Amino acid sequence: MAEKRTLLAVIGDENTTTGLLLAGIGQISNSNTELADKNFFVYQEGKTTREEITDIFEHFTEERDDIAILLINQHVAEIIRSKIDAFVNPFPAILEIPSKDHPYDPEKDSVLKRVRKLFGE
Question: Is Ion transport one of the keywords (predicted)?
Fold first, then answer.
């Protein structure tokens, strides 16, 4: 199952996505469907809808089998928090990351919540 999972994907604001693309994580396929073309999604505050974020999250986590890690800005993850908290599959691993304008809050991170639960905190 994990052999073909070789990509990172990102759902993030423009600065985060641009930085990760400059670091080399971008991948664009020759597929005919709009969602399958790339492994990144740029969130635009005030323009991107909750439905768009939900659709791309579901696409990256349920439909694509080549993504190993999904990086998502924590402030974007808050918009679809119930979806992220309900996701329990080992792949792709979902990692919440800070953005330039929104600092990281460990109290909101779904991975840290699960770790605390395991240790009885």
Answer: yes
- Which residue is associated with the tokens 């994907």? 9
Over 52-104, what HEC string results?
HHHHHHHHHHHHCCCEEEEEEEHHHHHHHHHHHHHCCCCCCEEEEECCCCCCC
Sheet of 67-73: strand order equals 40-43, 7-13, 67-73, 93-97
Amino acid identity of residue 27, one-letter, is: Q
- Cα separation, 80 vs 75, in Å, equals 10
The structural domains of the chain, ordered by start, are 7-119 (3.40.50.10580)
